[in-house]
Amino acid sequence: MGSESDMQPLGPGSHGAAVADVQAALRSLGLLEPSSDGVYDQATELAVRHFQQVRGLSVDGRVGEETYRALSEARWSLGDRLLHHDPVRPMRGDDVTNLQERLLELGYDAGRADGIFGRETETGLQAFQRDYGLTADGTCGPATLRALRQLGRKVTGGRPQLLRQSASFVDSGPHLIGRRIVVDPGHGGADTGVTAGETTESDLVLDLASRIEGRLAAAGATVYLTRGRHQDPTPAERTAFANDARADLFISLHVDAHDSPHARGVASYYYGTGSGTSSTVGERFADLARREVVARTGMLDLGGHPKTWDLLRMTRMPAVRLDVGYLSHPVDRLLLLDARLRGTVASAVLAAVQRLFLPADADPPTGTFVLPQKV
Ligand SMILES: [Zn+2]
Predict the structure, then answer these.
(1) pTM for the full predicted model
(2) pLDDT at 50 (0 to 100)
(3) In order of start, what are the domains of the chain with their CATH numbers?
(4) How far is the CA of 252 from the centre of ligand 1 (A)?
């Protein structure tokens, strides 16, 4: 892709080299068919909208500066180039985000996973390199990548100190006694939510909610579901229920669908205006729950997003909505139809709840927490 400055927004009707650049970027992300030809057609607009949606950009189907920059950054995947801290021109891209996320999952403080290689990322990377016997030069090259890859997607290693702490936490038994948690399966009754053949969102999320209820209860929590199979409470009824129950945490469950067959992955939402005001605990839980699900299922991470929805706004406790996969995506659908996978998602949510109520210094790396056998 060409220069970032002085860019005329591209949209339906645009054509030429700039459009071809955009289409190449969309194709490399698997969002556009190979047949696109430099004309900003409907398929291009749809792909741009989808890209904007999953990136949390304003969804207008046009490519202005912001979307163009995000597309440029999305070109990089981990291993494409050497990553290091450049104070003058900080390196940006999805490869940086990926590195930051891996370090965070392993328990290293690499700053926010914002896709910008800053001082904190360098410090976190050096700590990782030291612990794994690599040259602690703060540069992510082949040796560091190999070490990161050997640890796999599902992290089973981590810093010995953290592992010791989490082991003693596991030994200490059911930790959620006294916690009141409301689990809210979306839709219900006549409102099925999104569907794929016989499969309905309302049934899937009720199944998930029941599995989560079982695991949380086994860990000592008091759990309430906002609905049964045949009810469809309004958002006001759901939030009033949680408020009356004096819940410590509210977890709403949904499954997504999209016109684009490429849309897939897990997103989480917490209360926030996007311009400063947000629920800190909500944001933390949204992050923990999504990361645990992604680490354990391999689904795509669509990030956490602040929203002012009634469901999140009218609850008096930290409230999070988790959208687990796209019923319209062939792979996500297969995963969601697998009962074992739904059990895995429930375990991931349990681990996130445990971590939320766990002292920060004893927090185990993502993907490692297991419920003690004796419970
Ligand atoms: Zn839904």
Answers:
(1) 0.55
(2) 87
(3) 14-75 (1.10.101), 83-154 (1.10.101.10), 174-357 (3.40.630.40)
(4) 9
